[in-house]
Every structure is written in structure tokens, then in C-alpha cells.
Amino acid sequence: MPIRRLEEDLINRIAAGEVVERPASVVKELVENSIDAGAKRINIVTANGGKSLIRIVDDGQGMGKDDLVLSVERHATSKLENGQLDNIQSLGFRGEALASIGSVAEISLRSRPHGQDVGLEINVINGKISQPRPTPMNAGTIIEVKDLFSKVPARLKFLKSDRSETGAITDVVKRLAMANPSIHFVLEGADRQTLNWPEQSGVDANQGRLSQIIGSDFTANSVTIANTRHGVVVTGMAGLPTFTRANSLMQFFFVNGRSVRDKVLIGAVRAAYADFIFRGRFPVVALFINIDPGEVDVNVHPAKTELRFRDAGGVRSAVIAAIGIALTEAGYRASSHVGKSTLEAFQAPHASSDFPHPPNQSGQGSTYSTHNYQSQGYSPHNHHQQEQTSQDYRAHDFAPRTMDGLSEPSARYEATQDDATGENYPLGAARAQVFENYIIAQSGDALVLIDQHAAHERLVYEKFKGELSRGNVASQTQLIPVIIDLPEEDCARLEEVAPELDKLGLGVERFGPRAIAVRHTPALLGQADVTALIKDLVDTLADWGGLSALTERMEKIIGTMACHGSVRSGRRLQVTEMNALLRQMETTPHSGQCIHGRPTYVELKKHDIERLFGRS
């Protein structure tokens, strides 16, 4: 078959297949044009998920007659100065959007520049462009796209339901609005509820817009990011590690004002939260990256949703550093929704005739019955039994051992002179321990519940990382080496990684063909179960497959050790030990969550507790 030139209409429809994937793609292209035109207000109207109608109204600079005619022709643009594709500073630049849309839909385009008395209108029907004609309108541009894909039924069949297409349009507009907080966005139509996001200004403009779109719950449970590294400026907000979602749909990335889904940025966020997020959970983030346009190629994909960094490693490290610094400065903070979930778990008891009511002081009018207690052997008349029970309780030894690595620090938070109880500390003062694992503390206006094992696990883990960053981890020699019998292949794995383990304060050596001798252990672990620790490490090494995997995942090894070195559930603690744990949490980064991503404490405000009892 001889080579021939394609017809213009077919060329446009092929281009439309690249640019116009669905109605949301049309909205994206048109709103980006409005943003590039300097609009301060953009109104988007849709019908039937954008299939029947998409209308964009803006108050941008508008177009004159010549620009209006050229705008619907292929590869015509005002956004590429001197053809510099390595210096893109606008959102739209290919000059093919309107021509491609016009080949698969009907377009009505009206525009009036500021300073002109009347606007002009042109129509594109079946790829044919009409002559401009005058039309009354306000300054700016109005574009209507009707009957999308009506001429391409095969493409129309592949579109999803109206609800799905409406949701896709909403997502596109949300991302554009996040990147442009100074613009007032209105999204409305018969197929949706109206969304109205007024413009934001000032230093908190980004935070205000994120609160409008993602929600105030996000901004209340996130940290502000602002850092520059390798010429990459990273700003935005990142959710606390205990504020997560079951998928990554609430992760938003913007590069030079352009919304993107980039593997480098997604991987950087995953790495930044690796120490804090439970497996299968995803942090909520909105990151704005500004970089020299010459260092990023946005011309990789026709829809401009992908890009390529010249120095991907530098961008990755900049994002990781920015998030890491922000989370470190957050200190012991945990998200407030944990407390809300706890409050929702409380229920008022249901009235029951079997519930024992204590007698009143006068002994009259009481319905008190002792049969429930007597049936269990507890009789109010059996004084000998009560006395014996008390003696047994007092005789039991509840003296706790000292928690390894914990002492009463001065901390950076000093209690005031009139705070003899220590309630002015951020996490308050310990009041009790329940279920031999949870500390109850009281601060000035809240009740705080602390998971002692999870909290101490994070403290030990951070100490491990600190000592390792300064050199090798301090170790303690075993008076008698601990000999552990293991399969020969497990002994070989431990022998291979012994030099790396020694840096972590764990000294192991081969002791015959099927045994390992542990000569010294990290001092931070105290009196940990060495045998259980070694068996956990062996299982981990078997999954990873050798030394290279260990060096890449050193933090996992540290986490395993920290878990064995932390104060266990079931330990009764003295008040001084509990307060020491609280004070160290207040001065340790990331102590609001354990190394598995679970919260280490829950805070219940006084007014919330009062509401539970109907006192407010």
C-alpha cells in the first residue's frame, strides 16, 4: 500500500485520542487555558458527566479576532517563546487542545479582551470553523463543548457512568484549585452538588485552599513543609503518621504548578514515612515542588500528566528531607482523629434489672440484692473472707523492675512553680496504670491514655538510630555467652551478616555447625530475651535473602531490636517510671506513633469527656 497524507479531520481525531481521553481531560485543558490567561474567577458547568455539556467561564485577558481564529487551529499557541521546549512556564503549550476537542465535539467559543466594547464568537462543528461574529458579553472567555464523542460512538462506549465521569471532573478541578489558591473556582451543574472555593490570599493561602478542598481535619492533623535542597523548593502540608488512608488517592503532587502523578515523588513520600506508617496505610500529603524549568521535562506525555526530572535523585532526597524535617519538628504530636475514634467507642450502659445498685446510706428504699455476690463466694457478712482477701493482695509482690534506659530527665518542658502535680507538661502527669499496659495521665485540660510498650518501643528505636548515626551502637557483654541452636542454613545467614550486626551492638559468632553464640547485645535492650530476638532476626533474613538486603533495610533490623528492648505489656510500673516515659516522649521526635505506625497515645479533652456524661 503506497504512503499517503492523512486527511486533516482524521489527523485531528488521532490527536484527540491522545489528548481527550474523557470529559475530565477536556475540563483540564480548558481550565488550564483560563489559568494561563490570568483569570481570577473560573466557573465550570457540566451536564451528564461532561458528555452533554462542559462550559468554562473566566474573567481572563480574553482574545481578539486574530487570536480567536488561530486558537482552534492545530499547533497554534501563544505560550512558547522562541520555541523553547526546555523552558516551559505555562500549563498549556502544545496548541492542539481546542483543535482536537473540535474534531470530536461541537465547540462554541466567545471571548472579549479587556478594553473592548464587544466580544466575538466562533463555532467549530464537524471540524469546520465559522467566521467570527460579534456577541455581547463580559470581559474574558466563555467556551462550551457539547455532545462529546457524538461523532465517535466507539469512544463514547468506553466512557464510564455519568457519576464516574462527574467524579473524575471533580478530581481534576480540585487539583487545579489546589495549585492556584488565588483563583476563585466554582464547579456546578445538574449532575452534581455545587462546589465553591473562594480565592485565598496571604502567607496561609495554600493552607486555606487545602482546608477548603481536603478538609479542616487534614490541616489540623498535618505539618507544614518548607525546605530547599539541591535547588528544589518543597512546600505544602504532610499528614501526621497517625493520619492515614487505605489508599494513595489523597496524595497530591504539583511541580511548577502542574498536577502530576510521578513515581519519583510517590517513592519519596513512601521512603519519608517508612519509619512511621503501618503496612497497607498511606499518608495524606499535598506537596508543591518548584524547580528550574530547564531541570524538568513536561513534554513526556500528550496530556502532560507525567514528567521527567533531570536529577531524579536530587528531587527525591529533597522531598524526603523536607518531610523528615517537618515530622521531626512535630515531635510527639498524634492526630486528633484518634481521640475522636476513642470517644465514639464509649457507650452509656443500658439499664438492667440485674445491675447491682448499692444501698443508700439510710438503708431505706433500696432495691439492693446480694445474690450476685454471694453466688461468687463474696458475702458481705463473711468478714473472715474479706480480711483474708486483703491479706493475700498485700502479700503479693507487685514491685516492678526498673525500666531499662529510662530516667527522670529535666526535659525541655519545665513545670511551673504552681504546678506541683506536673499537669502543665504536654502529656500531663501519670495518675494510674490499667491492664498492666496503659498509663492514664492528666494534663491541664485533657485525659491522656498511653500505650507503654508502643511508646517505649519508639524511644528505644530513636536512640538506636541516634547512636548508629554517631558510630557503632554501645553494647553490653554477656557474662556467659548465650548459645542458640538453629538450622545450619540460619547459622550461615547470621555468620554472613555478623559484621553488620556488630555495628548495632549485637555480637554473634558460629558455635559449631548448628549453633550460634551471642557474645554481646545492645546496651539499649537491657535484659531482653536474646533467643527470641535472634530467631526473629533469622526469620527476617530468610525473607530478605542476604547481606545486601540487610544493609538496605537496616531500619527494619533496628525496629526488631527496639521491639524486643522496649518495656513489655504486662509490666507494672512505678509512678516515677511512668512520668519518665512521658517526659522522654515529649522530647523524642516521632513519639506520637510506634514503629509500626500505630498511635502511642490518645488524648481526650475535658469538654469531650463531660459531653459523654451529658454535662455540657
How would the blueprint of this fold be written?
Elements: H1 8-19, H2 23-36, E1 41-47, E2 53-58, H3 65-71, H4 97-102, E3 106-112, E4 119-125, E5 128-129, E6 133-135, E7 140-146, H5 153-157, H6 162-179, E8 184-189, E9 195-197, H7 205-213, H8 216-220, E10 222-229, E11 232-239, E12 244-245, E13 251-255, E14 258-260, H9 263-272, E15 282-283, E16 285-290, E17 296-297, E18 308-309, H10 312-330, H11 337-345, H12 371-375, H13 383-395, E19 429-434, E20 438-442, E21 446-451, H14 452-469, E22 475-485, H15 488-503, E23 507-510, E24 515-522, H16 530-544, H17 547-552, H18 554-565, H19 575-586, E25 601-605, H20 606-612
Parallel strand pairs: 1-8, 13-16
Antiparallel strand pairs: 1-2, 2-7, 3-4, 3-7, 4-5, 4-6, 8-9, 10-11, 11-16, 12-15, 13-14, 17-18, 19-20, 20-21, 21-25, 22-24, 23-24
Helix pairs in contact: 2-6, 6-7, 9-10, 14-18, 14-19, 15-16, 16-18
